[in-house]
Each structure stands twice: as C-alpha cells, then as structure tokens.
C-alpha cells in the first residue's frame, strides 16, 4: 500500500519518483495512458484513469495513501481540480508540482490566446506554413483550415480529423536549438503554434523561432484551483513529501 501517489506523465513526475524511490518511501506513479509507449518512471506504475473525483478519493482511502503529488501536464485541465477535491474528501495531503511557464523575451514575437480554438482562429486569419506543436488531441481544432499548410509534430499519430494540407512528424523531445532551426528552415515555416507548457524539454523551438523572426501563437495555460500548495522543482517537491510523511 503506497504512502505516496504521483500523478504523472511528465519529466517532473519521473524526477520526483526517482528522488523518492530510495527504499524509505512506498510510491506509485499513475499515468493516464494516453501515450502508447510512455517514458516510465522508476518504481511501481499504474496506468489508467480513476473515474473522476469520487474514483480517485476511493482509491486514496482504499490504499491508505497519505500524500499526493500532482505532477501532471499544465494542460491536463481536468485532473488537477479532481485531485484537489479528492484529496480534500479523503483527508490526504496534496501538492501541485508544475514547471514555470515560458515568458517572452525581447526578440520573441508572441500572439497569446486563451485556448486552442482561439489559436485556430488566429491561424486561419494568418495563413502560411504552420508548425503545429500542441499535441495530437488538439489537431482537430485546425481541421477546417483549408488554405494553410501544417507540419504537425506529435508523439503518437492523431486519430481525429486533420487539416487538408499537412505533414505528420512523429517525434519526441528533448530538442536542440540547432535541430529546431534546421526544421523551421527546411519546411519554410512562418508561424509556430504551441501551448505554454514551460520547461526546457521543448523550449528550443521558441529560441529558433525568435532567431528567424517567426511569430508564435502561444496558448495560455488553463487556470488551476486557487490557494493550493505548489512547488516548481522535483527536488522541492520531494523534500515537501518527506516532511509530510514525517509529520503524519
């Protein structure tokens, strides 16, 4: 029965699991199962959903979990509110581990939008050759854009409707500025579309775009529940977890 449940699927989740799985902490990492061949953390892994707030609360109670670290992706909008509520229901300590968002620099040309539909509207008005890096679940938002060519980079191939003019590039980071620069040049990209995921894993595309003067449509993060305890590094999160376990 685990002391700690890490809601994962991110590099931060793998890092915090590696910090805690040292023989003194019983830990389970949970992955949603949306990627066919995910990078697995060390230690025990659970794959699949819980069934919303009630299902997660039942899992926490039934397994005697004492601490939850929510290290899910910043755009996994449903799990964080459910996790906050489930931990409250079950009397379990909750921590949000979220990487800092990207911020534009002096040479960046950002167009910030609140959601993926707004990004699709900007792309339709702008036109051109677009590098789409928002993930396979959001590709369908651009399916009705007829006069734009898309380079669509994903880990797994999309299974939804696609825009009529596109090329699929299956790839997984991390990426270098040099490789991103070459990609933009080779495909004559003049617009980049990304979510503000933050972190270093995929940030090289922003620098490469800035170097070439390419506009970037940046989808802002969804709002998270207010007043939750949060950390921005795996090291700080692991220290918090150990303190919670000592106190409990």
Automatic annotation (TrEMBL):
The UniProt record lists the keyword Cell membrane: no
Protein name per its UniProtKB record: Precorrin-6A reductase
Organism: Gordonia sp. MP11Mi
InterPro entries reported for this sequence: Precorrin-6x_reduct
PROSITE patterns listed in its UniProt record: COBK_CBIJ (PS51014)
Organism lineage: Bacteria, Bacillati, Actinomycetota, Actinomycetes, Mycobacteriales
Gene Ontology MF terms in the entry: precorrin-6A reductase activity
Documented EC number(s): 1.3.1.54
Keyword list, A-Z: Cobalamin biosynthesis, Oxidoreductase
Gene Ontology biological-process entries: cobalamin biosynthetic process
Pfam (any one): CbiJ
Pathway this chain belongs to: Cofactor biosynthesis; adenosylcobalamin biosynthesis
């Amino acid at each position: 029965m685990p002391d700690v449940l890490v809601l994962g699927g991110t590099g931060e989740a793998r890092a915090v699991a590696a910090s805690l799985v040292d023989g003194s902490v019983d830990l389970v990492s949970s992955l949603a199962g949306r990627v066919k061949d995910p990078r697995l953390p060390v230690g025990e892994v659970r794959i699949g959903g819980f069934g919303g707030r009630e299902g997660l609360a039942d899992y926490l109670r039934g397994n005697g979990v004492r601490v939850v670290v929510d290290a899910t992706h910043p755009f996994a909008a449903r799990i964080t509110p459910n996790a906050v509520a489930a931990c409250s229901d079950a009397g379990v300590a909750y921590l949000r581990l979220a990487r800092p968002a990207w911020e534009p620099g002096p040479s960046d040309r950002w167009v910030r939008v609140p959601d993926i539909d707004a990004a699709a509207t900007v792309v339709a008005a702008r036109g051109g050759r677009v590098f789409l890096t928002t993930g396979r679940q959001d590709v369908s938002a651009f399916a009705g854009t007829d006069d734009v060519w898309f380079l669509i980079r994903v880990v797994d191939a999309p299974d939804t409707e696609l825009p009529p003019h596109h090329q699929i590039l299956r790839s997984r980071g991390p990426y270098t500025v040099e490789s991103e620069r070459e990609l933009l040049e080779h495909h004559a990209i003049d617009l980049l579309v990304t979510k503000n995921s933050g972190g270093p894993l995929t940030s090289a595309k922003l620098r490469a775009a800035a170097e070439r003067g390419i506009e970037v449509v940046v989808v802002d993060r969804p709002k998270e529940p207010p007043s939750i305890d949060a950390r921005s590094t795996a090291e700080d999160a692991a220290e918090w977890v150990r303190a919670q376990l000592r106190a409990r």
